[in-house]
Design goal:
Layout: H1 6-29, H2 34-55, H3 59-80, H4 86-96, H5 105-137, H6 139-152, H7 154-170, H8 175-201, E1 203-207, E2 216-217, E3 221-223, E4 226-228, H9 237-246, E5 249-253, H10 259-279
Antiparallel strand pairs: 1-5, 2-5, 3-4
Helix pairs in contact: 1-2, 1-10, 2-3, 2-4, 3-4, 5-10, 6-8, 7-8
Length: 283
């Protein structure tokens, strides 16, 4: 299998088209449709199967299945660990059918590792940039919420401040203590900042008629004797119907659309894949 062969280029183009559509949909509606992710898996594995059938070598197809299996396990760990929402986890699974570019498993394992490392760094930078953007956009509300959260959590914050100061004083005897003290001192500020951003930038009032399956409730909602929980996997259809009967407006929590990180990470991976192969074809 050539690194610049038709089948690899086809998979790359296919993935790029799908990720771009997923990104646009996520930015517009804050969700990635299941059919989009499942369609990518079907097209990728279908192409691998028929290509393998006509080339009389099923390694290309098997590597796709192995990649799908590895990324399925990884995506579930991230989803149930509450790092990923459902749409992001399914998009990651679908990329598992794309990313095995080689017929050699160990080479594919390197590709997976590079992609995940790129994804980690891109995700961190993107998250920080998103927080800064939201902070500037909602600066007035954020400032008020920060002051409010500081007052609410002062019983926890003050002891940590004093602990940080005490450890910084020990820094006169050992420099390492000063660094730890600074980190501990500013940690409560960071906690309050994240909590403030979450409350004033991520919470939105919407009409219950516009609720969709998978939307996150901001907090538990009581309907009679029953309570609809604000859970990670979001609202179900029957819960939405109950809310629509009882309420006209509801508070939901929105996350930062994370699909752009998939697009950025995939483009960086492809760039390094081709660039490094020019110098080292056995990468």
């Amino acid at each position: 299998m050539s690194y610049f062969s038709f089948e690899i280029i086809f998979l790359i183009v296919l993935a790029l088209i799908w990720i771009v559509f997923a990104t646009i949909q996520d930015l517009k509606s804050r969700e990635i449709a299941n059919w989009l992710n499942f369609a990518l898996i079907i097209f990728a594995l279908g192409f691998r199967f028929f290509y393998s059938l006509f080339s009389e070598s099923f390694g290309f197809f098997y590597q796709g299945l192995i990649g799908l299996g590895i990324f399925f396990v990884l995506a579930n760990l991230l989803y149930y660990g509450k790092f990923f929402a459902g749409g992001d986890a399914k998009l990651l699974v679908s990329l598992g059918a794309i990313l095995p570019f080689s017929g050699v498993f160990m080479v594919n394992l390197k590709i997976f590792s590079y992609f995940l490392l790129i994804f980690l760094f891109a995700g961190a930078i993107y998250s920080i940039a998103s927080l800064i953007y939201l902070s500037l956009k909602n600066f007035r509300n954020l400032r008020k919420e920060f002051a409010l959260q500081s007052r609410k959590n002062k019983k926890i914050l003050y002891p940590i401040f004093f602990l940080g100061l005490f450890i910084m004083i020990l820094g006169f005897f050992e420099n390492l203590f000063f660094i730890f003290g600074v980190l501990i001192f500013f940690l409560p500020y960071f906690y309050v900042y994240i909590k403030s951003v979450d409350k004033c930038c991520m919470v939105k009032k919407i009409k219950t008629s516009k609720l969709r399956e998978g939307d996150w409730l901001y907090k538990d909602v009581k309907i009679g004797k029953k309570t609809i929980k604000a859970k990670w996997d979001g609202l179900k259809k029957e819960e939405i119907k109950k809310l629509q009967k009882k309420y006209k407006i509801i508070l939901i929590k929105q996350g930062i659309p994370f699909s752009p990180v998939f697009l950025i990470s995939f483009l960086i991976l492809i760039y390094f894949w081709f660039f490094r192969l020019l110098w080292n074809p056995f990468w």
